[in-house]
Sequence to fold (351 residues):
Amino acid sequence: MDVILYLLVAFVILMFMITVHELGHYIAGRVLGFKINEFAIGMGPKIFSKTLKNGQVFSLRCLPLGGFCAFEGEDEENPGPGAFNNQKPWKRLIVLFSGAFMNFISAVIIVIIAFSCFGDYLPYIHDVYVLEGVEQTQENSLLPGDTVLQINGKDILLNVDLSSMIQGAGDEADVLVIRNGEKVLLEGVKKGNYTVTAEDGTTQTHYGWGVSIGYGGNERTRFTFGEALARSVPYCLRTASYVLETLGGLVTGLIGLDQIGGPITTIDITMQVARSGFANILMLVTMISVNLAVFNLLPVPALDGCKMIFVIIEWIRGKPVNRTVEGYIHFIGLLLLFGFVIAVDLLRLFG
Fold:
């Protein structure tokens, strides 16, 4: 029963984010005067349908794997009045962009709630090593248990950034930490050579702060509402740039396909996180929402980003690309996209 419960939770979370995305298209379309035929939650046969006074259909469908906002004449060569393709290009660009924008806005709102109500796991100092020839005091040195908030005035937004920020901090840095429940600014934290002894007795000499970093083993760092508000947009933007870095790593080969996942992997991870509490669910929803926003704006056929490119081409040329040709491009892109995500999941499961 637990597996079924958490599976349902995972589907609800994914459907929520997809619905938010489609709602972005819907709201922008309504505001800008587009004719909308149907707003659907889910895919497949209808299990509930209601026609509104303006003729729009709201439907709930049986497969919790997507949703759509169907605009009049979206794929037609010569659509009627009020149809998608008869609207001005700038209006269509706004509507196409609004799905991803709504995902990003929802991520910002959710992360504000998460940070202010539950806090976030920030990197902390696990072990400290002696720096050769460097005088260390409590006023300018990191101690075990210190939670790192800032380096030279820059917030630690994602844990993955800490190592690179330390490397780029110079020989001395000002570090803001939480120590014994209070914020402490350590001025002039110095780097030096230090020796680490491995379990097998071998030693290695490194240059840096002389610390090892822990992640997730300390208590969550709580933020006031104002701090959460100020941190939310930079956090989501940094998450978005990290998604792009990951995609770039896939293209260049620095990241293997076995290190990413498709929908099955996403559902599996969501189920695991759902078991660990509401705070972690909120952070996962934030992460997936930002992923959806970035992914949908990629210039890949069938995605909003590619559709926006076709609109821009039409705007520049003064006439659209043949709608039939565009439709085939998006259809083939959709098939390739489905094939890719299925292959990624199979590689992760059986690779």
